[in-house]
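User: Hi! Is it possible to get a structure for several chains at once, not just one? Here's what I have:
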Amino acid sequence: MPGGFFDPGVERTTAAAGDLTDELLQQPYWTEQMLIKAGIPIVEVPFVTVGGGMGSFAVVDYLRIAGVPTNKIKVLTAIEKPWTTYQHLTTVSQVPPGERLRSDSASCIDNIWGFPSFALREAAAAKGIIKKLDPLWNVFSEPVLTNYFTPRAGQVFAGQANEANRIDWFSMVALGQVRMVRKRHGGGYFTILTPPLGTSETKRVAYKSRWVHIAIGYPGLRFLPDLQEYRTRTQDYVHVVNAYEPHEHVYEELLRMPGTVIVRGGGIAASRILQRLIDDRDYRGAKTQIVHLFRTYIDGPTGDSIFWRRPGGDGWSYQGFNWPKAGWGGQIKVKLEHLEGEERKKYFDSMAGTTTPKRKLWMKQLARGRKEGWYKTYTGAVEEVVQGPGNTVTTRIKTKDGVLEIPANFIIDSTGLEADIREHRVLADLLDFGGAEKNVLGKLSVTRKFEIVGTRNENGRMYAVGSATLGSYYSVVDSFLGVQCAGLAVADDLADQGFCKKIGVGRSISQWWKWTLNRKV
Amino acid sequence: MTPTYGGRVQTRFFTLLVIGGLWTLIIAPFLPGGGSLGQRYQATFTVLALVFLIGIPWDGIWYFLQQFRWEKDWPIMYQLLTGIPEGIVVWLVLKTRNVPGHPIITGAAFDIHFTTVWILTWLFAIGPMRVPFLRWRFRGGRII
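Assistant: Yes, the chains can be modeled jointly so their relative placement is included. Here is the combined structure:
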């Protein structure tokens, strides 16, 4: 795994000067003297963002455009580029740079205005009138006559690289693992960074800041319990894999010899993996038999009310993006902002559930597979996964017709379950020492302005964004446009506290003009 | 932008006033039909006012229909096509001759004026609107 996304706990074992002491570990409030006594150097900067991925990038982009100089921002990150983790996850889950993401045309992480959108830019760059019109027709007719337009992964990364350069992103980066954020006596916070071995004289460096922004991404990935149990028991990491870990060997092996693969899950990752398996059948001569295992089989639209009915069929629940579209800025966003406690949880539950976008290519591929007999679906609860004869794995499922045993060469877990926020130790530390609380979905509670509830310290404020905050007042926290909306809310709140100017109409237009000319902010 | 009801009305008001207004200033002298410049501006700006006022209940209808959509969004194609019924109703209202100021506008002039205004305001709202109003798309189309 790149960076500290899934292994935030990896640390050096060699003794070095300037390490955390028992006193520091036990005290929720720190002073400069405590850090000096421990030999940890202190770097002062007003604003620190922890993570360095999409969430950090979005807020820093706004702040730079609002006129904040680079020396007032520090990005503490374990990843080299803001898209490193995202690119890794999309690549292994079968979205190489040429394939399209599940993201709206105007969700431009490289452009805070979302204009020109990805579709417009794709049209401008295309050669020939037909190719130019294609993305334009797509956004015009979506989702009525065509599927939603979505940008190619490569276009997004290239755009972000350009924007990173424009805002001097890399001059604000300090590499390392963030260990914790603690409150400072007298206001503000100390963020402890463990720089890579050999890059610092001390094991830890403390960043003293008035504001801290936490954008650490997924706290961790969780396996389906039965598959986790199988892997722990058998130590077989070859035949049972997760969609979000590298598993190219599965496809390579299936090209070498015919085999059966079980895909579990009904979300976008399952769709992608099915596409890859079928593309390999169609274009590379694979003879793979595909078994698709659903926990719940959706055979048509779901929902009790005509005003609240989600399309579905063939096992899948269909939705353009990871939440209904009005969650980004429409009526669903407004509604969520007005709901508290149990009511908010109920509303989240009514929209939750695994979904995949309805795409003609995928529907055609699967229909062909069903007809030709190499794509089969089963529905039921898995009782057990055990090693079978040869190099096979047997899945025992309880269906309505009794217990069924399905042998396969490989199992791909595409359910994408997320770990508890405690799995990430920065968040665990905030819950234990920072005063942070959990929200109605058991994740990090943040206000409508994305301030972490319970962590305010005198004039200091701490913010958080991303999947770890799901269940607060915003549903789409785990998306490009979602982190941008959150970034703007944070930048506006910082402006209210005097850190930067609020981006008004005039500044917005002049800065947009600079963007179009590709001039630095 | 996925609109709320308030956002629809505010966006309608702003785009008609600024984009519709500027375009009307330019195009009114060249529209077919007779009349002095003053009469032309009176007629075309009355059309803009009617599109806004009659649009307030229309927006209620569009918002109601939006509730049948799971995504609670409003495809930009619908945003363009709703101009057809809206245009017809504005024309019928004008034909009653009960509109204050009794504006005179020929069918051809109305068609050209209304269609171009509708397309220009639509083009503005689906993209460039986000440039001056950074927060607009996160507020369901509300400007204030």
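Confidence is low (pLDDT under 50) at residues 1-15 of chain A. The first helix of chain A runs from residue 22 to 26.

User: Great, thank you!
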